[in-house]
Amino acid sequence: MRKEIVPFDDVVARFHGVRIYGRGDGRIVYLAERGGLCHVVIVREDQPLGAPVMATVLTFDTERERGAHLASGGGGFAAPS
Asked: Residue 6 forms beta bridges with which residues?
């Protein structure tokens, strides 16, 4: 797993078809795929007004690796039931 912090506008530009996975614990979690890699995008809801919205992008080599991370509650977010 690789981790990077990027502006959310870059996420929207980079990941066509990004979709929401769930919301809770003060975070919105999205899923995306690009270039054969699987991504989890996490956006905190308590970011300061007026500041650029930043996102944490977690990159996984396989869907299985990403699924295991989500199932374990990785990123501080519990998988939806």
From this structure: 55
CA dist 70 and 49 (Å) reads 29
| Calpha distance 1→59 (Å, rounded) | 5
Q: Please say whether the beta carbons of 42 and 55 come within 8 A.
A: yes
* Pair type for strands 27-34 and 37-44: antiparallel
Residue 67, pLDDT score = 92
- E strand intervals along 8-76: 19-24, 27-34, 37-44, 54-60
- Taking the model in full, what pTM does it have? 0.85
d(CA 69, CA 14): 22
Residue 28 exposed, middle or buried by CB count within 10 Å (0-12, 13-18, 19+): middle
pLDDT tens string 6-49: 999 999 999 988 999 998 888 999 999 999 999 999 999 888 88
